[in-house]
Amino acid sequence: MKKNRFIYFLLSIFLVAIQWGCALQLRNSANGVNAEPCMAPEIPNDLLPYLKSDRHCQFILKNLPYGEHAKQRIDIYLPKHLLGAPTLFLVHGGAWRFGDKDYAALVNNKRERWVNKGIILISSNYRLIPDSYPAQQAEDVIRALAYAQRTLSRLSANDDSFVLMGHSAGAHLVSLINANPEAAYAHQVKPWLGTVALDGVALDVMGIMASPHPNLYDLAFGDDPEYWQLVSPKTQHTQQAKPLLLICSEYRTISCSQARSYANRARELGTHAEVVSVPFTHTQINRGLGKNSNYTYEVETFMKGLGPLWDANL
């Protein structure tokens, strides 16, 4: 009799354990937590200290250094499968003086939409005024891009299906790099497929500085016309420029007028440039990209046309 009671006791404990485990799994599922163990991607040992994961088992290589300065860092958001994944390379705005790669308006909706579609997302920091000015900031972005491509190659991921994207001052920087890719190639950057500029604030620096303008431009570009020319995407645009999508706010007249003027110049040189004006504010253009909207679909249509990996993942 005692033996039977002991067996019943063990059986009851076993059943309670099963019920508790099922309840925990259901609770995790309800909270959006993956009930299965997170399976980390295979990465080189020297990158392991930078590997993080969130509660959805999405892995991030966080604060990878491409230089010695504290701002010379990138984050790489990894989809489940790296093979065949194209890459979106983000550059934040902030009037060349502030901003960060972690800014929620820059990353969150884009990450949620596109990493889940199998796209690698990289967000980059760069040195800010007064430590660095726009020409040097563009060089930082180039260095970050070269480092990102080398890192993806080490992960056995594609390093030749990049699209550059920047907002505000970041849109100025990616447009400047895109205008004359030879400067990036000189730093061992492999050709990228195209660039998306989200409401760029300085596509025509020469034109801005020759007209009444906010003080933020003086702080960034100074008073030297030769420097203005050096950092003006419209002035620097060459026939080697990659396809360019210019998003502008209908609420900012100067934004759309600059975008259209720049696109006309790009077409005169035989390069591809599109302008899409949207009924959103400067901030909404950044934050809203990635939500289900005609705006997001237009950006995706442009990116799908840049190559088969983008077409397959969007």
Describe the strand arrangement of the main beta sheet, using strand numbers.
1-2-3-5-4-6-7-8-9
State the CATH architecture of the largest domain: 3-Layer(aba) Sandwich
Structural class determined from secondary elements: alpha/beta
* Overall number of structural domains: 2
Element string (H = helix, E = strand): HEEEEHEHEHHEHHHHEHEHHH
**CATH C-level class of the largest domain:** Alpha Beta
Largest sheet, in brief, is: 9 strands, mixed
Helix content: 40-55%
The counted number of beta strands is 9
Q: Quote the beta fraction.
A: 15-25%
Basic shape? globular
**Count of runs of 4 or more consecutive helical residues:** 13
Q: Which radius of gyration do the C-alpha atoms yield?
A: 24 Å
Q: First CA to last CA: what distance?
A: 66 Å
CATH topology-level fold name of the largest domain: Rossmann fold
Counting copies of identical and different chains, the oligomeric state is single chain
CATH superfamily of the largest domain: Alpha/Beta hydrolase fold, catalytic domain
Rounded average pLDDT: 91
Overview of this protein structure:
By secondary structure, the protein is an alpha/beta fold. It folds into two domains: 1-36; 43-313, Alpha/Beta hydrolase fold, catalytic domain (Rossmann fold, 3-Layer(aba) Sandwich). Helix content is 44%, strand content 16%. The protein is built from 13 helices and nine strands. It has helices at 2-30, 104-114, 134-154, 169-179, 182-185, 205-209, 215-221, 225-230, 233-236, 253-268, 282-288, 294-304, 308-313; strands at residues 51-53, 59-65, 73-78, 87-91, 120-124, 162-167, 194-198, 244-249, 273-278. Strands 1-2-3-5-4-6-7-8-9 form a nine-stranded mixed sheet, with helices on both faces. Strand 1 and strand 2 form a beta hairpin. Helix 2 (104-114) packs parallel to helix 11 (282-288) and helix 3 (134-154) crosses helix 4 (169-179). The radius of gyration is 24 Å and the shape is globular. Residues 6-35 have low confidence and may be disordered.
